[in-house]
Amino acid sequence: MKTVFKLVVLITLFIAGTNTSFAQRAKIKAKTSVKKATKKSSKKQKVVKSKAKKTTSKAKTTSAKTKATTKKKASSSAKATKTARKTSTKAKSTSKNTKKAVRKSTSSKRVSSSKGTVIGKDKKGRTIYRGPKGGKYYINKNGNKTYIK
Q1: Are residues 117 and 95 in the same domain?
Q2: Is there a contact between 86 and 96 (Cβ–Cβ < 8 Å)?
Q3: pLDDT given at position 108
Q4: Is the residue at 66 inside a domain?
């Protein structure tokens, strides 16, 4: 009898504990799914906000970098123009000096150059040179050496 009584008590407790109906379980599932969805959406919103902050900070740093590089380029281009002006004036003065030196050196008959030593001119007005081995030649209109016997 005691075992039967224990068995009856256990069955009643079991039935009383699982007395929730299908509708009640559906409501509980709906509430938990809503809670999960709100948690997911809030996490997604946080991720989106953090990404937005990162991109704005990157944009700010890149804009600052581009500003700095443009300033550097502007200053370097200004320096380059100044140096170009200086070098062009130096080049002009050196070209004047070299022109004067060429005029003085061509006035003498014997001139030593990379082509050879100038001997004189022939009947046609061509400049005749003496080569390193003693040969005589002139430079034709194509720029080639033509040797004379």
Answers
A1: no
A2: no
A3: 44
A4: yes
